[in-house]
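Researcher: I'm preparing a figure for a lab meeting and need a structural model of a single chain. I don't have an experimental structure, so a prediction will have to do for now. The sequence is pasted below. Please return the structure as tokens so I can convert it later.
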Amino acid sequence: MSDSVVSARLLDLTRLFSRAGRVLTGVDRVELAYLKALVGRRTPAFGLVRTPLGYLLLDEAGMREITARIEGRAEWGKASRLSRVFGKLDEAQQRMLSDLRRLAIGRSHRRGLSRLLARHLPPHFAYLNVGHSNLNDRVISAVKHGAKGRVVVLVHDTIPLDHPLLQTPKSVERFRDMLQKVRTHADLVIYNSRTTRRDAERHMSAWGGRTAGGCGASWGGVGPASARGIAAGATA
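Model: Understood. Here is the structure written out token by token.
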């Protein structure tokens, strides 16, 4: 999917929101790397965040502002009264939610996601999910059927399925469900290594049906050098 084919890119930033105020993991850094790599290119970029109220949509200006805050080059704003209503959010998440709402170019409740995307993104955009947060039936349906986009997912590894005894039953089930969604709905899968691709396709083939097309870590909009860095970060 080169710049000439994709009309816009929509990067899911839900994982970074959920990790606000915490030390970034390898997967978090991958999502941040894609955020930085997609902004400022010829093809427009947007960011999607699921919140307790629904969804927020950012343009490139908002994505730059969020990047600066995550990297510590700017301060998060004060938590709004609305953000404090959600007791499950800690202070860092409340402040991030408040800034996201201030920076967003569009908002919607859960059922309004299709209309939100169709209103702001052109047809044939690519929805990119790197952190696996928010990869659910509602989002997939809104992207593919409501807004006429395509789904692209980065798979880091298949450790939960390869070594289930080292995982909790819930984490194994959650990962299996995610990979089955990838098999069924993804238009393109990005793998960080040949080993990951081999292992993922082995599991997906065993389930029968279609297996989504795949490519290496370099995908349109993220050049080979940055892709190598992203792939390295996924194993950290």
